[in-house]
Amino acid sequence: MPEKQGAFPAALCGALTALSENYGTICSICCALILLDLLTGLAKAKIQGRLSSDTGYKGFWRKAALLAALVFGICLDLLVEYAAAAGLGAEFPALIGRLLAFCIAVNECISITENLSACGVRLPGFLAAALGNTRDKLDQR
């Protein structure tokens, strides 16, 4: 590969490595929870006899929108960090992406518990209550 063609993949890999240091864990958790929610949702639909491609199609795009929201939050974090470095007055830590990721993770966990309950899996009552309380507190702020 000529030297000029190798610059873009190298820059892309470098940027992804830098982002993974700050966001790799939370992005991995969100992606795993989204996948688990999709799987438990499919199991619920199959058990209830409501498995349809139209519902799956809408669910897929809903999950794609969640990932887009996560990327948007990370971009906002990077923008705040850039503004702080440029001296434009942003003197607070950039937590928007992490907060969005946490909200996505909590909502996915709630959906997973609902799907599992609909499939007949018995879960401890405190689990759903704790997740619901966390979601309510996030909605208040």
Automatic annotation (TrEMBL):
Designated name of the protein: Phage holin family protein
Membrane topology designation: Multi-pass membrane protein
Predominant place of localization: membrane
Presence of keyword Ribonucleoprotein: no
InterPro entries with a match to the protein in the record: Phage_holin_4_1
Ranges that cross the membrane: 23-43, 64-85
Native source species: Hydrogenoanaerobacterium saccharovorans
Annotated keywords: Membrane, Transmembrane, Transmembrane helix
Subcellular location(s) per record: Membrane
